[in-house]
Amino acid sequence: MTTNALDPSALEPSAPSALSLSTTDFSQLNLVKALQARLHHLGYQQATPIQAKAIPAILAGRDLLAGAKTGSGKTAAFALPLLQKLVGQRAGGGNHVGALVLVPTRELAQQVADSFISYGAELAPRAKVIAVFGGVSVNSQMLALRGGADILVATPGRLLDLLGSNAVKLSQLKALVLDEADRMLNLGFTEELGEILKQLPDQKQTLLFSATFPEEVLSLTAKLLTDPVEIQMQEAQSADIEQRVYTVNRSNKTALLAELIKVRQWRQVLVFASAKRSCDHLAQKLEKRGISAQVFHGDKAQGARSRVLDGFKNGEITVLIATDIAARGIDIDKLPVVINFELPRSPADYLHRIGRSGRAGETGEAISLISHDEYHHFKVIEKKNKLRLPREQYPGFEADAEAPLDCPSRQDKPMAKPEGTGKKKRKKLPKINDAIWKRPS
Ligand code: ADP
Ligand code: MG
């Protein structure tokens, strides 16, 4: 088996820093005792590289532009200094918020809020941290926001709903965090983001985190950040991920996937499909082959999504089939393998996907099953990521030399639209009082 290390220079500023590489002790970072004690209790021995750089800059009040991939410890990098600066500082009254953290997905909102609560657990006074996101009832979120919060973690759509009904006020905001900014824009939140930004005070500290820096992110940073400290973690993202590519007839893909799962006996498998429908479809087909799999995508109710994620995290679920949007930002430990059952549309997402395997120094494996209709797109992915991977054939599942007659590449079918690209519909909520939120034109 060949190891295809990525050329580090090929990467956008990003990348993990194996958590163990850093040698900065948390005691060197001017954090208050209650935070240091908590980190000690959590078993965090040393700051990760991004934490070592970001924490002093944020404590000093600087804006921040940080490039680092999932798993590099970004949450603590912004949560610790924000907790230190904001807890106990909030003026009473109103539904005012001290810091707003915008994230692209529901899971991430909950996860980031949980991290704030955990990191701040030994602070006195306690931090008030609230997560708001769609897919669940808005009423309890409105109630929770009464009296304001130190930290509000939100997805853009639900935040706009809450702003529209005056359930939250951002006019006294001290700090704004954009977590996974590239993803947020990728998922079509550009307009929502613009509407939210217009409602924030000019004077505030802004921290922007992104794994990649495409045009849209760069123009956002230019608008939002004032003389930011820039941190870019440059270490190679996937040096220890073995990437394999099997060419296979589309009609044989499920059979090959089932074969791989049975033969390789992985502890856990994360399978990526391009759309919600193909996730469901694939799960049913695997079921018929005696493999039990769960799906994870945006059409599932929030409760079901949480249950599936917990089941996968604690090992009850072995095979998880997910779309890019749903899988983004979730904190799953060290997967042995990631399988691209269908290719991501965006070449950057290919790196995000494979980066889910072999986290924190473990060797991982990434397998792409490509059929004739995907050959061309895979070349684009390789080119953009400066990769060249040998095409292999899995014995018994070899691709035909020519695309078979039933292959979509012969029928000019467009690739399925990725989840999250459609126009978002938001339900209007009743106003709490008379002040009417006007949609900027
Ligand atoms: P990111 O936001 O960059 O994806 P997270 O903040 O979710 O990363 O952190 C990834 C994992 O690493 C989490 O499980 C977190 O608890 C753990 N972690 C973060 N910082 C440290 C540290 N300094 N020492 C040990 N573990 C850490
Ligand atoms: Mg994160």
TrEMBL record:
Pfam families: DEAD (PF00270), Helicase_C (PF00271)
Motif (Q motif) on chain: 24-52
Keyword Repeat appears in the UniProt entry: no
GO cellular component terms given for this protein: cytosol
Segments for region (Disordered): 398-441
Ranges of biased composition (kind: Basic and acidic residues): 409-422
GO MF terms held by the record: ATP binding; hydrolase activity; nucleic acid binding; RNA helicase activity
Residue span(s) of domain Helicase ATP-binding: 55-231
Keyword annotations from UniProtKB, A to Z: ATP-binding, Helicase, Hydrolase, Nucleotide-binding
Domain (DEAD-box RNA helicase Q) ranges: 24-52
Domain Helicase C-terminal as annotated: residue spans: 255-402
UniProt key word Nucleotide-binding: yes
Family indicated by similarity: Belongs to the DEAD box helicase family.
Name of the protein in its database record: DEAD/DEAH box helicase domain protein
Organism: Shewanella loihica (strain ATCC BAA-1088 / PV-4)
Lineage per the UniProt record: Bacteria, Pseudomonadati, Pseudomonadota, Gammaproteobacteria, Alteromonadales
